[in-house]
Amino acid sequence: METIKKHLRNFLKKHAHLRLFVRKVKWRVEEQEYNKTAKGTEIDEKLVLFETFMGRQYGCNPKAIYEYMISDPAFDDYRLVWSFFDPQAKKAQFSALQRAEVVEVKTRAYYEICARAKYIVTNSALNYRIQKRPGQVFLQTWHGTPLKRLRCDIEAEKGNVNNTLNEIKIKNDMDVVRYDLFLSPSPFATDKFISSFNMKELGIENIVRETGYPRNDLLFHFTEEDVEEQRRQLNIPAGKKVILYAPTFRDNEHDGAGYTYDVHLDFDRLQRELGDEYVILFRAHYFVANRFDFGKYPGFVIDASKLDDITPLYIISDVLVTDYSSVFFDYANLKRPMLFYMYDLDDYAEGIRGFYFSIDEIPGPKIRTEDELIRWIKDLEGEPYGKQYFDKYGDTFERFAEKFAPLEDGRASERAASELIRAGREETQK
Known about the structure:
With 430 residues, the chain is α/β, with parallel strands linked by helices.
């Protein structure tokens, strides 16, 4: 059966018109099935459903909003539900989920919760069959400030192997019209979200709320105990500095099973050059998180790709190495060095996604080779750590923070929760 599905996927990749027809039929059937489930279901005014990356993780902005709610007595009588692919395993793994109910995504129980919930909070696209009913409030938190072009702003047709530009727009419009609120971390991001999610054409640009990102609240409130606990959980040796390597995926790297990624690094060499001083935390995008095996490098490379939440990794990292991932917008709140390993910069900028702003605004070196990356990491040593980086990029860093993180103050979760409940009350009064 899996072989048949693989051949079918490969066939549809080559026939865009047929692929779109099949998708439309599938969406219509699923929508009708959902409406049958929802019919006659009464909305629970104090039921909130949370979901991160379609049920893959307990993390990001929905996690931060949820944990704010369970800390606030005002929500003591709310029914809080999380959806996961593996709900019981998640509940056993995270103590904060003891306050919540859990449900498995794409099950009848899940769709019944979706139909009954007053509030649905997600950070990515919802399952297309879920239709917003009168009285419900859907909050889209999204999951990063965009450097690379998103959705309807993507111009390079060859950059996405799964969708034509027309398909991207159709899927976007089906998704975004369901949301009542859309969180933004800055005026810059607001402008790009309105454009990329086609909000103006859809007449819904007023749904954006500039609250800052809830997931970044931790970066203003963590303690040394939090750092030590996270290092202990990951078995990071005392005295070792931590490099967080967090690259994004490439739209044009794909095989029959999904996205692929070549790290373009020689970890044998990195261990020889840096292993005495550093540990590398490797954090891949969730699209490619299951494609790596670093068993050859115990004690040097720790694969953190399958951890649910990246934010705790920020607080234990001395330096961030990334490329075009939005992680650096968040990490900048810590005012620590950031290095940008952009070995494929020309291809990425011109042939895959394209950028929303000049990379000259990025506060750090745009590194093309492994030699240069190693040299920069070694040059960070000294007192204080990263002095050479801030001597060169300090002014750029400050301008960057003013433009892209002006709202971050550790209280974004509170603001987001307030906006959510306010919208719920307004919806009820209609």
